[in-house]
């Protein structure tokens, strides 16, 4: 999956700002949509270069030749920035997003320059062709870049603004209609871009929420089984060689709490257990609720690291401490912890779960409850 860098320059951040407050990951996804696909990119670049080439052939003068050179130079620069960004994004490296954003208004300015010199040339054919090309690009600008509404407005102003100025200076009354069309184009495309942007952000937030719910336990907020497997895949891609240990724990005496105090108190107990596990686990650890009163902690701990035994014993000791719950209830439970090794790529996660589960029940049978074993 390609991941493009967020812009860092003040101008880049301003241009790429969405229409509402969004989380960083959604902002990154919005920036990614600005790069689009090669066919869409080539369609816009080919259109403007082709129009500039035809009119440069029709009027082989310095202004029109300069327009053609400008279109080609900007098109090549945009293509280079586009391809470099796609390659670096695929490699997980920083992308030249600011450069790519800055080239977009420059391209719009080249289109506007062509419209201006065509309108002031006195050639109706040239003016009409340049104006049609600029107007056609407005729709593409909006629907390709609505992830950044400000960029849409700036590009339209850069492309149609000079066309309007050229129409005013052309001396042709019929071209004054362009002066009336420009604000309507700008207003309608701005409104459309902002509405589409808001819809896209809402959709992304809904997908993000759905994905979070699908991967997390609704009661404790911990990972569920599916979320644990997915997170383990991401952890396996991390650039570190440390082994990982899987700690499987089961609460001792939880059923008695449910029977004595009710399921509401039992749920509150599970939430407090989850909070203690988060506090004890390392910053990169994965903590999951597998269902019922069973939990899993996966952390990077070497075989000879004393923290391996210490973490398991710390979890068992922490769970043994009384839990203060609402309505004045104080309950005490225990925890049996089994430990197993798991590979970084997660290929033997099922085997590790079974091994740790077996070790956990071995604790219950041979060493008593609220202990840890490998």
Write the layout of secondary structure elements.
Blueprint (H helix, E strand, L loop, with lengths): L9 H7 L7 H10 L4 H21 L3 H30 L5 H23 L4 H22 L3 H21 L7 H39 L9 H12 L7 E9 L1 H8 L1 H18 L5 E6 L2 E7 L6 H14 L2 E3 L3 E3 L2 E9 L6 H19 L4 E2 L1
Helix pairs in contact: 1-5, 3-4, 3-6, 4-5, 5-6, 5-7, 6-7, 6-8, 7-8, 10-11, 11-12
Overview of this protein structure:
- With 374 residues, the protein is of the alpha+beta class.
- It folds into two domains: 10-214, no CATH class; 225-373, Alpha-Beta Plaits (2-Layer Sandwich).
- The chain contains 13 helices and seven strands.
- It has helices spanning 10-16, 24-33, 38-58, 62-91, 97-119, 124-145, 149-169, 177-215, 225-236, 254-261, 263-280, 307-320, 349-367; strands at residues 244-252, 286-291, 294-300, 323-325, 329-331, 334-342, 372-373.
- The strands form two sheets. The chain has a five-stranded mixed sheet with strand order 2-3-1-6-7, sandwiched between helices. It has a two-stranded antiparallel sheet with strand order 4-5.
- β2 (286-291) and β3 form a beta hairpin.
- α1 (10-16) packs across α5 (97-119), α5 runs parallel beside α7 (149-169) and α6 packs parallel to α8.
- The protein starts with 9 loop residues before the first helix and ends with a strand.
- Mean pLDDT is 86; it is low at 369-374.
- It holds the Pfam family GGDEF.
- Keywords: Membrane, Transmembrane, Transmembrane helix.
């Amino acid at each position: 999956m390609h991941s493009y860098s967020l812009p860092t320059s003040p101008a880049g951040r301003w241009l790429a700002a969405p229409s509402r407050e969004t989380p960083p990951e959604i902002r990154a996804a919005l920036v990614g949509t600005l790069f689009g696909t090669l066919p869409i990119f080539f369609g816009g670049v080919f259109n403007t270069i082709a129009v500039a080439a035809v009119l440069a052939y029709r009027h082989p003068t310095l202004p029109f030749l300069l327009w053609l050179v400008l279109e080609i130079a900007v098109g090549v620069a945009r293509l280079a920035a586009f391809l470099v960004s796609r390659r670096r994004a695929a490699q997980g490296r920083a992308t030249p997003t600011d450069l790519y954003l800055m080239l977009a208004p420059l391209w719009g300015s080249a289109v506007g320059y062509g419209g201006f010199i065509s309108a002031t040339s006195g050639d109706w054919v040239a003016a009409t062709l340049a104006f049609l090309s600029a107007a056609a690009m407005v729709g593409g600008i909006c629907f390709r870049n609505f992830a950044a509404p400000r960029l849409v407005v700036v590009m339209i102003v850069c492309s149609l603004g000079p066309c309007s100025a050229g129409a005013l200076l052309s001396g042709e009354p019929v071209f004054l209609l362009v002066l009336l069309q420009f604000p309507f184009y700008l207003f309608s495309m701005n409104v459309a871009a902002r509405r589409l942007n808001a819809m896209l952000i809402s959709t992304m937030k809904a997908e993000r929420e759905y994905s979070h719910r699908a991967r997390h336990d609704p009661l404790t907020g911990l990972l569920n089984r599916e979320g644990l497997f997915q997170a383990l895949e991401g952890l396996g891609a991390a650039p570190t060689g440390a082994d990982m240990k899987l700690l499987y724990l089961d609460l001792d005496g939880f059923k008695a709490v449910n029977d004595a105090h009710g399921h509401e108190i039992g749920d509150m107990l599970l939430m407090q257990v989850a909070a203690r596990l988060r506090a004890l686990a390392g910053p990169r650890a994965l903590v999951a609720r597998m269902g019922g009163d069973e939990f899993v902690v996966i952390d990077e701990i070497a075989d000879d690291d004393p923290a391996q035994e210490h973490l398991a014993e710390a979890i068992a000791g922490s769970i043994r401490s009384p839990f203060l719950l609402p309505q004045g209830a104080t309950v005490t439970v225990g925890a049996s912890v089994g430990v197993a090794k798991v590979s970084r790529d997660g290929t033997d996660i099922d085997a590790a779960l079974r091994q740790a589960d077996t070790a956990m029940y071995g604790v219950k049978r041979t060493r008593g409850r609220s202990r840890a074993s490998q």
